Amino acid sequence: QVQLVESGGGSVQAGGSLRLSCAVSRSIISSYSMGWFRQAPGKEREGVASFHRDGTAIYADSVKGRFTISQDNNKNTLYLQMNSLKPEDTAVYYCAAGFPWTVVAGTTIGYNYWGQGTQVTVSS
After folding, report:
1. How far apart are the C-alpha atoms of 87 and 120, rounded to whole Å?
2. pLDDT tens digits for 34-56?
């Protein structure tokens, strides 16, 4: 059983920063494809940032240049550094893991394991 636990969410003003963390229960982070997703009220869950199977980071156009995905394999932890936050970034953020040969980069397809989510609220 794989468990993912997000932390680091909160409330910030526009222009502020947050760093989300996702602790993974066992050493899968180096062999699975990891990603961050978000879901705003009334909207579908969307990809924010993820790693392609070759290790390349992929970002949604709306967050390029502001968000950075990274991972620490020794700590089994995935991170999302979010800078220059905007009110439209307000959502519940989820981390997810999936087999590299089944995930479709930039989408939720193929991700088998999901965290419970952490709320990010950006005020104007």
Report:
1. 10
2. 999 999 999 999 999 998 878 88
Whose tokens are 């940032």? That residue is 49
- Of 28, 19, 117, 15, the residue nearest 68 (C-alpha): 19
Going by pLDDT thresholds of 50, 70 and 90, the confidence category of residue 25 is confident
**Does position 26 have pLDDT exceeding 80, yes or no?**
no
Longest dimension (CA), the chain: 40
CA nearest 4: which of 107, 96, 72? Answer: 96
Q: Give the whole-angstrom CA distance, residue 31 versus residue 67.
A: 23
